[in-house]
Input
Amino acid sequence: MALKLSVIGCGYLGATHAACMSSLGFEVIGIDTDANKVAMLNRGELPFYEPGLDSLLASEMTTGRLSFSTEFSDAADADVHFICVGTPQSKDGLAADLTYVKSSVTAIAPHLKAGALVVGKSTVPVGTAHMLREQLAQSAPQADLAWNPEFLREGFAVEDTLRPNRLVVGVVNDRAEAILKDVYKPIIDLGTPWIRADLPTAELVKVAANSFLATKISFINAMAEICEAAGGDVTVLAKAIGYDPRIGSRFLQAGIGFGGGCLPKDIRAFMARAQELGANQALEFLREIDAINLRARQRVIDVVRADLSEDLTQYKIAVLGATFKPDSDDVRDSPALDIAVQLNAAGAKVVVHDPKGIEPARKRFPDLDYRESVLDAVKDVDVILHLTEWKEYRELDPYAIGTLVKSKFLIDGRNMLDREKWRQAGWRVHALGRTD
Ligand code: UGA
Output
């Protein structure tokens, strides 16, 4: 008999997981407490932007295998329950807020059938899985718990779920591993590496991976600062060191740094947990990684002030990009939006464009001036800030844009535009970490 699955929490992670597991042939029920989100998903509509997921969701809804509900009791006949709820940074500190993870386990516990397996996918502080397993041993001793961290990237969510570069499962017995091997069989058959770990190691793999990625980005942004001070070019430096396979060229794109719902809060939660464990010294370097990252945003503002004026009240600035990265509508902890908000607060007239992120950005920062068209956004501006590297910005015609602005001054916060092309069209271009 094929396993039935439930996915608890239907955000970026859960909605993707539910649709992908359905596409592998499982019957899947997605549970979310947000009735609007559930209604949308049941209509086959995605509540957020993720390339490829919209069509996958729509087609899976027609199979009859996939459905969504607000009722935990509707998941009672599932054999495996994936916990995919958010673990945001807590309001009063660096630690992760585990409210949703705890409440979803508490809510599903009374409905778990004998032999059911609860599988955490959310990113949690090490020790959470053990704590939840103890909790289940009291409230639902007929069930078991495992941890299976998720490594998907927004913008590549479907690809990363169906063709991940590894599967990591934290289990305390063979039975839990066997169930997860059943679920992931089609993916394992592709040759995907399978790593069995204990619960704490599985939890740590996720935060270690994100900390390493954050470190890579902040490393190259630190080099960008040095290049600016010494008259070098960080893009050439990155290319040159990246040829060493021990270093690798990916995630060495210098710019305004990392944002999103994961990297920033994960390194902070990791530091907070290390402190609780009495191992704070081991992760002291992450404080510096965070500081370098936030400095990258500030450096853009410093360049604007140094070039235009300390007093920005007379200046109009176009910000191209609001999302934390392209091919996403996610504006959580977006460096681009943060820069826009800070310049706006400093008195500049800031106009923001983004291909997909305007509505989510407007919800968070209603005071900014948003425009649907780039041509509209750049009208009469004193400087254009390129802050999220959407493809459409690389295709802009600098000559055409040049006829609309007040001053042909461009700051490339992502080092992704063709500087020569813009310079030939008469623009002054400042790119982070490049002095020429
Ligand atoms: C990240 C990880 O890459 C995933 O493996 C992980 O599963 C996910 O977090 C998570 O914890 O759920 P994501 O947040 O989608 O994925 O975004 P990334 O592609 O990692 O980019 C993060 C930020 O770093 C973006 O703001 C991006 O612009 C920035 N970045 C990335 C750079 O500034 N330079 C680079 O070279 C690469």
Q: What stands out?
A: The chain has a mean pLDDT of 97. The two ends are 65 Å apart (CA to CA). The domain at 4-197 is CATH 3.40.50.720 (Rossmann fold). Residues 199-230 form the longest helix (32 residues).
